[in-house]
Amino acid sequence: MPFDTQDGIAPALQAYVCTDTGAATARAVLAESGQVAKAIHGGGLSGAARLLTDASPVKCILAEMGQISLPMATECVEELARVGIDVIVLGAVDDIATYRALRQAGARDYFCLPADASDILAATTAPSPGPAAAPASPAPEALRGLTIGVLGCKGGTGASLLAQNLAAHAAAPKGPNRATALVDTDLEFGSQAIDLDRDETRGLFDALRAPDRVDSTFIGATMDRISDTLSLYSGQVRGDQTAAAYEPGIAALLPRLREAFDTVIADLPRGLILRQPEVIGTLDRLVLVVPAGFAGVNAASRLLAQIRADHPDLPILAVLSDTLKDAGLRPKDIAKTLQMPLIATLPCCAPALARAHKAAKPLVTLQPRAPWSRAVRAVFDAATQPASAASALRKPRKRLFG
């Protein structure tokens, strides 16, 4: 290709292309950066790997994959990275496996053609990934985010309301003041955005489709930032979508969010736990909301049996909800049946909750001294205590009464 027109002066950014589309993209990037076409060369990624050596003054290049295989492309990237050259790869394949392989090889970024020149140019100033690091030891809970799942064992218990208020309390500037993510994982009927009078975050589905690409930049572009410390993912599938197509991404998304937030609150529907049981494995704590009725306690017993069989070390906190009076079973009888203590009771306070719904605000924000708000804080305190203190919650109590 007639692009080799170097004059001995190395531009700040050079391009190695092998197709007309790659050349046009490179021209647009160089034009936006204030450079000229003399920085465009033929040969693509493999040509760059052959031509550029330790002595090369070039520090950053755009390189088109062309027809070479992915293994060969990763070898070329590794060779260029070895001599200290940052590589932004251009290619025709749009999939996560290609992106991940090239990034792990040391590429600064990968773009599927045609690509926006501004996005590519922005990648030239992004941090270089550098060599792959050895697997790190698991971080202490104090040094990483905490993921708390909230699961109602029957509809109408107020589990979603509890998740919303736990997130609002965690993010409260005059409270814990933790960077918090509220994730509504009910992709069919989730109502967190509606209850807070926010637009649905359609970026949730982008995140579930490609959870490996979720980082701080992606989060900033796709989550609804309710406040400086509280962000939201909440959306419902449309007519041309199915929840089943996106639910497998939830188990991969939650750990990514934990890397970016101090606290992640996941509002979990019961059906999701049955369809995607691996989601439970991503949690640090599970809050189970139980009504005082036979059906609710039965459902709680079944859920606990399944969860404990698969995740015996997961701390589980049972919370009694008086929103549904049901049969009005006594708390001590419920605790005995579940073989675990009830760490709090969400009292029935319909007028206060109605005012909060009308204001589209969490009750802990609108009425922090309400009995229901005090119960929320008790749940949060129990869920965020250190793992050593929470260990008593991990296994069922063998005996509650003499």
TrEMBL record:
InterPro entries in alphabetical order: P-loop_NTPase (IPR027417), ParA/MinD_ATPase (IPR050625)
Keyword Ligase part of the UniProt annotation: no
Gene Ontology CC entries for this record: cytoplasmic side of plasma membrane; cytosol
GO BP annotation list: negative regulation of cell division
One MF term in the entry's GO annotations: ATP binding
Keywords: ATP-binding, Nucleotide-binding
Stated name of the protein: Pilus assembly protein CpaE
Organism this protein belongs to: Roseovarius atlanticus
Lineage: Bacteria, Pseudomonadati, Pseudomonadota, Alphaproteobacteria, Rhodobacterales
